[in-house]
Design a protein that fits this description.
Elements (H helix, E strand, L loop, with lengths): L2 H24 L7 H13 L1 H23 L16 H47 L7 H37 L4 H4 L8 H19 L12 H6 L12 H8 L3 H6 L4 H4 L16 H8 L2 H17 L2 E3 L7 E3 L3 H10 L1 H16 L6 H13 L8 H8 L6 H22 L1
Antiparallel strand pairs: 1-2
Helix pairs in contact: 1-3, 1-5, 2-4, 3-4, 3-5, 4-5, 16-18
Length: 419
């Protein structure tokens, strides 16, 4: 969403509230109370604040996009020996530290925008109530229609702002999880950036927390939104649906599955908090209830099959987790190779399967991916995620060791074929 579309939304909004004010003022020969007029004028002034927040949010999003574009350093720096990093690389290191401050400011701006949205909704609700109560609720049908129409358009504008926020969250997440360029990591004098070390440490901690079963997490017996969603009692949020409807209507709709970034936290809940503030982390008592309910288990398997289809794969055997290519694998593999966020989605899927009783499905999925990476070379861009994360979150140490041996054997076979 660009700045021009946001300004258009603001202008349309101003026209609507001005029209509402004029219509109400003309009712009964302009017999509107001074109190209602004062609230309308007050709302107009306060509406300036959300617009300023939105503008600031746009600027922070642009800065994040700029950071992503400039984050990778030239490969020739990797060959510098004895820590002789070029002045350009050193400059980028200092610049990266400065731009990291933008992330903290952006988080604060996100909070301000949400507060602005809530205040905004409260103001228009108050205006609507005041207008409806004037002269015993004797407001013309035309005026009521305009109020309802405005509320509808306001929802559309809020949804656009939400999508814009989500874009910034994705940029933040990518900055936090991407590894630093290989040229820095391979500096012989151990001159690795502190930021890279921090990211690596966070990843290690996250994996260890998962393998240990999140020992510090406190259960909250009053919260079970994940269980209710799995029982088809509540829809996913925001912009989501009930789980049965997602299976019936979203399956094969690749554009919807690609563009909507908020349903994955509901289909595959994990015990860590996510960037979707309307999704709840998975609690221990929910794990037990979902694992003990065949209906919930069947829905999880359907979700897994739906996402495998999205990635160009099929679950051939539910007992051992054997995965094969689907008929449209070439098209879907191409999408999977170029979309980093789908690699993160797979990490979430595998963690969820392990939490909710389907750990046995993970090993053969990873084996399939390793073959496609190193043998057929169709999913080469998944190598980092598979080797650094997916193998590491196999809960059985013997399976982790088996997959590492398998990986090394594939590497050796590839090397032998070149000699």
């Amino acid at each position: 969403m660009n700045e021009e579309s946001l300004h258009q939304g603001d202008e349309q909004f101003q026209q609507k509230i001005d029209t509402i004010s004029d219509d109400v003022a003309n009712e009964r020969g302009g017999n509107v109370s001074h109190q209602s007029q004062t609230k309308v004028d007050k709302y107009k002034k306060e509406n300036e604040t959300p617009k300023e927040n939105t503008s600031m949010h746009d600027e922070s999003c642009d800065e994040l996009q700029f950071q992503l574009k400039t984050d990778t350093m030239p490969d020739d720096f990797a060959n510098e020996k004895d820590g002789n990093v070029l002045h350009q690389s050193q400059t980028k290191v200092h610049k990266n530290k400065k731009e990291n401050e933008t992330l903290k400011e952006n988080t604060s701006m996100n909070e301000e925008i949400h507060q602005g949205d809530e205040q905004f909704q409260q103001k228009i609700d108050t205006i609507s109530d005041d207008v409806a109560n004037e002269k015993g609720g004797n407001v013309s049908h035309q005026s009521q229609t305009k109020v309802h129409k405005y509320e509808k358009e306001n929802e559309a504008l809020k949804e656009k702002i939400s999508m814009h926020e989500e874009s910034c969250n994705e940029l933040q997440f990518q900055l936090n999880t991407d590894t630093m360029p290989d040229d820095i990591a391979n500096e012989k004098d151990g001159n690795v950036l502190h930021q890279s070390q921090t990211k690596s440490k966070c990843a290690e901690n996250d994996i260890q927390q998962y393998l240990d079963g999140y020992p510090d997490q406190e259960d909250d017996l009053m919260r079970e939104e994940n269980y209710k969603f799995f029982m088809d009692e509540i829809p996913s949020r925001p912009n989501g649906d009930y789980i049965d409807t997602i299976h019936n209507e979203w399956w094969g709709d690749y554009k919807r599955l690609e563009d909507n970034r908020k349903y994955m936290q509901w289909l595959f809940p994990v015990r860590a908090k996510s960037c979707n503030r309307q999704a709840q982390e998975l609690f221990p008592h929910e794990i037990k209830k979902i694992c003990d309910c065949k209906e919930a288990q069947d829905r999880l398997i359907l979700s897994y099959k739906m996402m495998l289809d999205f990635y160009g794969m099929q679950l051939e055997n539910e007992k051992d987790g054997t995965v094969v290519r689907s008929d449209n694998w070439e098209e879907r593999f191409a999408n999977l190779n170029r979309s980093k966020h789908n690699h993160n989605r797979i990490t979430r899927i595998l963690k969820c399967l392990g939490e909710l009783g389907f750990e046995h499905l993970k090993k053969n999925f990873i084996e399939f991916i390793l073959v496609e990476i190193l043998e057929t070379k169709t999913l080469v861009y998944l190598q980092e995620s598979c080797c650094n994360y997916w193998i590491a979150i196999l809960k059985d140490p013997s399976e982790r060791a088996e997959m590492r041996v398998f990986y090394e054997q594939l590497i050796k076979n590839m090397s032998d074929s070149l000699t």
